[in-house]
Amino acid sequence: MNYRISTRAASLTPSLTLAIDSKAKQMKAEGLDVVGFGAQIIVSCGGKHSCYNVILATCEEGDEVLIPSPYWLSYPEMVKLAGATPVILPTTDQTDFKVTSNQLRGAITPRTRLFILNSPNNPTGSLYKREEIKALGDACVDRGVLIMSDEIYEKLVYDGAEHISVAGFSPAHQEQTIIVHGFAKAYAMTGWRLGYLAAPEPIAKAIDAIQSHSTSNPTSFAQKGAVAALQGSQSHLQSWLAEYAKRRLYAHNRLNSIPGISCVNAKGAFYLFPNISKLGLNSTDFCAQLLEREKVAAVPGIAFGADEYFRLSYATSMANIEKGLDRLENFARSLAK
Ligand code: PLP
Q: How far is the CA of 197 from the centre of ligand 1 (A)?
């Protein structure tokens, strides 16, 4: 497959690492016992770093990037930094905040370069089902659009649901997909700054060129920590998920019992995204007044492209959640009067 690399990435002098990588491959092909530490998977300083590198390596001025909203707030800004145009696909009038394949197909133009898929999603907690992901992947394969699949919340799914990667359907889907991942969510390594991505080789090489000239390598001891995390028992996940599920259930029920607030339940990640359209304030004013009057910090939905919502994270103690929701209820009741 022919991958178009951004002019920016293509103009870089290939890094020495890649020269060594190809020499090593040649030596291996000649039957020599070469120990390879070359590019394939690219480790970065966090999921955010990986996302940015993907966008820089594939997008430039004139390109459009399709982003379902509500979206993780950095995607559109990264697209703008790359000189490309974010094209937002709203999903707030659909159940579970999920973009449909028809909506996606209708939005693809000759300028569409990349589709950003984030399941489980920040900020809504939505999780796409197998057939939904397949249909989105098919649309991109049919129309030659690359997919950046941000799977950073892969391990945080509830109610026995499964996380599906679009790259897994067929070699054609894999060729079209760049998977972004990181250690911040499932291993609580947020401050360690470690992420990674898997991309088709020409794109991986372009990303490697960008990354090798912008940061040398992720911190060595964080990498050792990540290896230990991956090789260690994963039993923490079960207890985390049980605890998150408890908090999610409590917060979801409480939110829906507050007059003027309604909330779709999350299927993954650790966020809820309640609707406040009946309370008569936009999300910025709602969150500013909530902080001012009740000392509760929540993020306005406008930051994620949805002004009738706010984001609440339940990755905090049950005691905090109870206290915060008591205060939120006071605030909402005062607005509803
Ligand atoms: N992608 C999504 C959807 C996120 O929510 C986040 C962080 O909140 C990231 C990527 C970035 O993660 P990291 O801390 O590894 O940079």
A: 13
